[in-house]
Write a structure and sequence with these properties.
Helix content: 25-40%
Structural class: alpha/beta
Largest sheet: 5 strands, mixed
Strand content: 15-25%
CATH superfamily of the largest domain: Periplasmic binding protein-like II
Number of domains: 3
Shape: elongated
Length: 314
């Protein structure tokens, strides 16, 4: 087949239907009428001599041939979008930008103050935080609902770029003066104390269902919470304990009067990751955002290492 025989405009129609698995949803995305979308699909079917999509339930599914050409078409469209996007510098003090971020809840107090400080004098740079419980990471990125995600890693997909940011590295947190501080062997004493824990049950909190917590930690929980940021306040007036991310605990412990110490084993071997749509790889604003967040996390890592090197906080 010669490329000159194909209307290349129709490849965007193919890509939209393939991603949406719905002709009507693709029509909305491309701002086409339903008849216009149907006509475009009919022309493409004739040009490629394949049905391309067949009805399934309320949507469609690709044929074998459509599956075989989907990735090359996706790559071509992404390349063209990146190539044709004007290259503009981003200056947080003078540029205009609205950033939509999906952050793990405990990451918000770690990075947002720095972002706000750097843009405070510029009323034309604003931020919007999208709830990670309202949409999955993958859906948020692919649909363009967010510019950047800082969360557990999204599913490995060609459309999603990702960089590891920092390990979750949970450490044990408790109120100062907690009885566990008097235990000769705190690790062996863990089962004696009830826990306050994030709800890791599948489906209870989107994007956290793949987290695996070590069996060495007691599952005799007293309270399951939907937000890690709820835990510190609940620890202050109880004898419960909790496993919380290292960078978060070392920053908020003085505020809530918490003690903490590291565990001699990995409780959760996962990273918090920066993720975004690959088509935005060259976006200057997102490059600034990634660098600012990465620099801030590096500072926090140094602080945490210093604090933890002095021994258990009491």
């Amino acid at each position: 087949m010669n490329i000159k025989d194909i209307d290349l405009n129709l490849l965007t129609v193919f890509h939209a239907i393939y991603e949406a698995r719905s002709i009507s949803a693709a029509a909305v995305q491309l701002d086409l009428s339903q008849p216009g979308m149907s006509h475009a699909l009919k022309r493409l079917r004739n040009q490629l001599d394949d049905n391309l999509f067949i009805r399934k339930g309320n949507g469609v599914e690709p044929t074998v041939y459509a599956e075989s050409i989907a990735e090359p078409i996706r790559n071509a469209i992404t390349f063209l979008e990146m190539s044709l996007t004007p290259k503009e510098d981003f200056d947080p003090k003078h540029s205009t930008r609205h950033f939509r971020l999906l952050l793990a809840d405990f990451v918000e107090p770690l990075v947002m103050p720095r972002l706000l400080k750097l843009t405070f004098e510029n009323p034309n740079v604003t931020f919007e935080l999208v709830s990670p419980q309202s949409i999955t990471i993958e859906d948020a990125i692919l649909a363009g609902n967010v510019d950047m995600v800082v969360h557990l890693q999204a599913a490995m997909m060609h459309e999603i770029s990702a960089e590891p940011l920092f390990p979750v590295a949970p450490i044990l947190a408790f109120r100062k003066g907690h009885p566990i501080q008097q235990e000769a062997n705190p690790l062996a004493a863990l089962p004696k104390y009830r826990t306050i824990s994030p709800n890791l049950k599948k489906g209870a909190v989107k994007n956290l269902d793949k987290a695996q917590v070590s069996q060495a930690v007691s599952r005799d929980y007293m309270c399951l919470v939907h937000s890690i940021r709820s835990v510190p306040a609940l620890l202050t007036d109880s004898d419960c304990i909790s496993m919380l991310p290292k960078l978060y605990v070392t920053q908020i412990a003085p505020i809530y009067g918490l003690g903490y110490f590291q565990m001699p084993f990995d409780v959760l071997n996962q990273d918090i990751t920066l993720s975004w749509h690959r088509k935005n790889d060259s976006d200057a604003g997102l490059a600034w955002l990634r660098q600012t967040i990465t620099d801030r996390v590096a500072e926090l890592e140094v602080d945490a290492k210093r604090l933890l090197s002095t021994g258990p906080a009491t």
